[in-house]
Structures are given as structure tokens and as C-alpha cells.
Amino acid sequence: MENQKPNSKTSSDFISVYSNLPNLLNNNKIISKNGDENHQKPLSLWPGMYHSPVTIALWETRSKMFEIMNDPSIDAPPQTNLLTKTPSQSRMTVLYNFSSDFILREQYRDPWNDMRIGKLLEDLDALAGTISVKHCSDDDFTTRPLLVVTASVDQIVLKKPISVDRDLKISGSVIWVGRSSIEIQLEVIQAGTDHPDSDSVALTANFIFVARDSNTGKAASVNRLSPETVKERLLFEEAEGRSVLRKKTREDDKGEYINQEMNRLQALLSEGRIFCDMPALADRNSILLRDTRFENSLICQPQQRNIHGRIFGGFLMHRAFELAFSTAYSFAGMRPCFQEVDHVDFLKPVDVGDFLRLKSCVLYTELENPERPLINVEVVAHVTRPEIRSSEVSNTFYFTFTVCPEAKAGTYGTAIRIVVPATEEEARHILERKDAKALQSTNCADKRIVLDIRRFWIEECSTAHVNEK
């Protein structure tokens, strides 16, 4: 805007507006081979302006690869030389200086002075993506870098509340690779209130990425991984087990129900039928699944794109989390407390300009522990194209919440209801999700026992070896 002000107006009538991202502007210059600055990168090559400062900083670390991948004048050959890398070579850490940076603290604070989990999910996805790019790189800027995309989130578990009053760090590395898939494990670490000098893990997250050729879009082989330490080898084996489980789950036939499953299905449907046929006689401690539904719609904007020009997966997780939180809040009648992301599938990419519809419901509740009831929320994202009358599922998200103790203490007579299905399709969906979660928990527990035994014997053998020397 012009700084010249009309004589008839006072200075208070004229307000200049400036970008609050000057560093990003300066960093988005194209540098020629002889070192001269040419001109600004086209806006189409910039990441969106919506994202958190951490996400923007992480994407800046990928800027050179990003330029090569998106510059049509560079006809680079594909990567063909597969390297063997260690987990430590991909390790990255992000530090949040909440204790000294008031502005940063305000960007991540929720209304209850806790961490905005949705915003943290964005940063986790950005960090996992940067780590996967780092592992896939052949350290040769003359070749065409691979395109890595989020395939799924295996699990994100909150182990303790995260405060915005104390410094925080996220650290992670590649823990397993397949032919074209990569698993990254991240840990959110923060000092406790009782022991400010000792850090402890507040949250763990496992992301699955897949590599694609940036020109053809076909699956591409990734660098091999060579675990070095005992912990790295154990993490590799755990991830290998999860990969086998995912493949087995995909191959299993879910169409046929044996007698026992049909009995579970009918039992689940029985209360729902009473709601539909005799609503006055229905159990007041139950509620139909369809009555827990919420929906949110939006047009995906350019400011929400990632460095590849598509809508950032972390943004989708952020929006899904906030809808899930609102759904659980309305359902429970008191402030929910996030527990974990059970699973996220990224089925189809979401593009700038897409009409996105997010639909949520409380899928089921777990009331075995009345002091810690669990609310399981499903969010399904649909990419809708009215012009061609199509709607496709792009993402599915599963979140688990409980009720914050302080919120429960101030609420009288509020009970968490049992969710019941009204249709056979809803009943089958509930059972499939319950079984998937139970299978995941069982396999994790069994795997943990085996790995604890292996860890014990490795340590014993190492001690014996040292004693022999």
C-alpha cells in the first residue's frame, strides 16, 4: 500500500498491512549456478502460508530437493543407487522454546492453557516427512529426488499431558523400511513438573510413508536401513511385525461372519431396534450412533498446501482432530481429554480447490472403568466434486478420548452413554473397528513380551561376554 496519505484524513485513517513472513520471502529466491540471485520463486512453488512456524522451518530444510523436483527445466535422472543408512543418519530434533518465547507459546496454547494437539499433529507429520526425505536422499543433487507421501499413521499415544509453559522437543528417526515404505517413530519429550531437570516421553507417534517416483508416480525403492544398537534392532523387529500384521489384515476376508460373529451382531443391534421401533421404552443410558454425528465442510485453499502443491496431511489431521474433539465434547457434556490416535488412513490425495466434507460420529464407548471412560470417535473425510456428482473417501481417522478429571469433578449427574447402531451396516462397522483395536493391542502386548525376553537375553549375553574378557 502507498505510504502517501490524503490531506483530508488523519494518520489513524490509514493503516498499512505487511506480510508477517519476511524470512520466508527472503528464502524463496532462486539462486543461479554462479551464485547470483535471479528472481522470486513462482508462488506455485511455495508451501502454503497457513502452517505453523515449525512446519515452515522443516519444509525449508527440504528446499533444495523441492526446487529440483518442481523445476521443469531440470531433466534430472531418477535415483538408482540405493544406499545403506543407519537410523542415526535420519535422526532430527525440533525444540520449542516455550519458556522464553511468548509468541510461540501463544500459537500453541488452547483455551485451557494446554497444548493444541491438532497443531502438534501438523508438526509431527511435517517432521516425519522431513525425516523420510532425509533417509531417501542419495546425497546427489543431480538426480531426481523421490516423492514421499503419508500412507498412514499407525498410532499416536499421549502418555502424559503436554504443557505450553515448559520447553518441548520432538525427536525421531526411521526405524524400519520395506521396498518402498518407511516407518518413522517420533517422541515428544518434556520435563515433568515434579522433576524439571529430567525429561520424559509425553507422546509417541508412528508414521508410515511410501516413496514414489516424482515423474511417473509409481512405487520407488528406498535406501536400506541398518540398525546399530540393541534398541534400534528391537524397534526394527517391532515395526516388521506391524508390517506383517497390516498385510495379513488386508488379505483377510471380512465378508463372511461365523455363528459367533452373527450372535455379536444381533446382540449389538437389539437395543438399536428398540430405539427405532419403541423409542419411549429405549434405555436412557444409550444413544443411537446416528444421533452423535457432526459434519464440517470446507474448500481447500492454496494456503493449506504442502511443498508438493497438494493439501498438507498434517492440516487434514488437525481439522479432523478438532471435529473429533468437538464431537466428544458434545457427546460427553464435559471437556474431553485426548488419549490417542488409533489409526489414520490416507487413501487419496486432496488437492487445492477440492470440496472437503468431514463427517464424525462416536463409534462406541468403553465404560469398564467408570473413572476413565473411553470415547472412540471416527472421522471420515470425503472429497466431493459436485460438477461430476462424485464423492470419494480420502481419509479415515480414529481418535480416543476420555474425560478430564477436573472437568468431571465439576459436573454432577452426567454419565457417558452406550452407543448403539440402528442398522446392520453400522453394527458391522463397530465390530470391525473393535476387533481391529483389540488385535492391535493383543499383538502389541505379545510382541512386547517377546521383545522383553529378547532384550533380557541380549543384555545377559553382553554382560557375560564382558565378564569373559
UniProtKB/TrEMBL annotation:
Keywords associated with the record: Hydrolase, Repeat, Transit peptide
PROSITE patterns reported in the protein's UniProt record: HOTDOG_ACOT
CDD domains found in the cross-reference section: BFIT_BACH
GO molecular function terms listed in the Swiss-Prot or TrEMBL record: fatty acyl-CoA hydrolase activity
Domain of life: Eukaryota
GO biological process, one term: acyl-CoA metabolic process
The UniProt record lists the keyword Transport: no
Every HotDog ACOT-type domain range: 94-215, 290-407
Family: Belongs to the acyl coenzyme A hydrolase family.
Protein name as catalogued: HotDog ACOT-type domain-containing protein
Natural source organism: Saponaria officinalis (Common soapwort)
